[in-house]
């Protein structure tokens, strides 16, 4: 009888220890700090309520405003002069506007999201872009629907960190400190373009190789930066990428122009792979992890549509 009670006590103790260890492990993973907030959004576009209204009357009898709300849901702060909001989808003259009046910059920079001291996401403040005094001047025979479209072109940037394994002895396949041959975890800043599939391998007696993919994750269109999202074949799907290991002897391939560690690249079907080789100093005994920084810069184009019905006035 006493033996049975002892067995139960021992079993209970083992269960309690197991629960404590499990809780401790889960707490450690939960509290692990990440470098970035993350996510695949850039600028979110919405219309202010009733701007435009759902319906208006014809014959210049019903003036109204269009207010576009821009919310930066990524981590790159966009200067106000790098954002252009245009109202398209309607004939400007029919609504009492000029083409020049329907394209403007916001009055404030679009601040990126941040993290507080507790590692929680702090959203950015929406910025309003106002277009005033629309008024349908003509006459309609009956209800006529138009689509007012807010087109937003903005410059954006993705930043990513990866831990690269550096060893002077490239024949060292043990996992002590780090692995020379494996797929690495990539931490990305919140942005519609992401760096994915980073893999490291040994590239020779004094070289390590790594490759990664630049991938479109958002719903918009990518263009070469600095050209106002000009929709030409030469500008489409162009991203400027910079790779920085902080070590001499880095050479990357896959760029259409630039130098050994940076340049433009074209995405095909939303992605492109870059291959790099890093020279290693094997004369000095070393075994450590080195942070690699990858930056992608591009212009991004997105749209938001709002229907409006023009009704015949009495």
Features:
single chain, 314 residues, mainly beta, Immunoglobulin-like, 2 domains, 10-stranded mixed β-sheet, 5-stranded antiparallel β-sheet, 20 strands, elongated
What is the helix tally? Answer: 1
Question: Could you give the order of the helices and strands?
Answer: HEEEEEEEEEEEEEEEEEEEE
Work out the strand percent: over 45%
SS content category: mainly beta
Provide the gyration radius in Å. 28 Å
Quaternary structure state of the chains depicted: single chain
The average pLDDT score comes to 90
Rough outline: elongated
- For the terminal residues, how far apart are their CA atoms? 97 Å
Helix content: under 10%
Number of structural domains: 2
Give a quick precis of the structure.
With 314 residues, the protein is mainly β.
Could you please describe the fold and organization of this structure?
Helix content is 9%, strand content 46%. By secondary structure, it is mostly beta strands. The protein has 2 domains: 43-154 and 302-311, Immunoglobulins (Immunoglobulin-like, Sandwich), CATH 2.60.40; 156-301. Strands 2, 4, 5, 9, 11, 14, 15, 17, 18 and 20 form a 10-stranded mixed β-sheet that branches. The longest helix has 29 residues, at 2-30.
């Amino acid at each position: 009888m006493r033996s049975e009670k002892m067995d139960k006590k021992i079993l209970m103790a083992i269960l309690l220890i197991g629960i404590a260890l499990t809780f401790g492990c889960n707490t450690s993973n939960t509290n692990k700090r990440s470098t970035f907030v993350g996510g695949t959004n850039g600028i979110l576009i919405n219309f202010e309520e009733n701007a435009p209204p759902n319906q208006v009357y014809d014959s210049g009898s019903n003036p109204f405003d269009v207010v576009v709300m821009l919310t930066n849901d990524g981590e790159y702060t966009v200067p106000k002069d790098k954002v252009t909001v245009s109202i398209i989808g309607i004939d400007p003259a029919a609504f009492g506007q000029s083409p020049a009046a329907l394209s403007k910059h916001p009055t404030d920079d679009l601040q990126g999201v941040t993290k507080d001291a507790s590692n929680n996401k702090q959203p950015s403040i929406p910025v309003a872009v106002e277009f005033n005094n629309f008024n349908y001047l003509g006459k309609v025979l009956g209800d006529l629907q138009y689509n007012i479209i807010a087109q937003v072109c903005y410059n954006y940037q993705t930043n990513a960190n990866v831990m690269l394994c550096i060893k002077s002895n490239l024949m060292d396949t043990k996992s002590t400190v780090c692995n020379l041959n494996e797929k690495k975890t990539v931490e990305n800043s919140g942005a519609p373009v992401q760096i994915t599939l980073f893999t490291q391998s040994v590239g020779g007696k004094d070289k390590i190789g790594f490759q990664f993919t630049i991938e479109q994750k958002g719903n918009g269109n990518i263009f070469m930066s600095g050209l106002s999202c000009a929709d030409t074949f030469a500008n489409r799907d162009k991203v400027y990428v910079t790779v920085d290991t902080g070590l001499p002897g880095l050479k990357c391939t896959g760029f259409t122009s630039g130098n050994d560690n940076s340049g433009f690249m074209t995405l095909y079907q939303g992605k492109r792979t870059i291959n790099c080789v890093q020279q290693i100093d094997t004369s000095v005994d070393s075994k450590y992890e080195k942070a690699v920084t990858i930056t992608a810069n591009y212009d991004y184009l997105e749209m938001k549509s709002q229907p409006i019905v023009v009704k015949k006035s009495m």
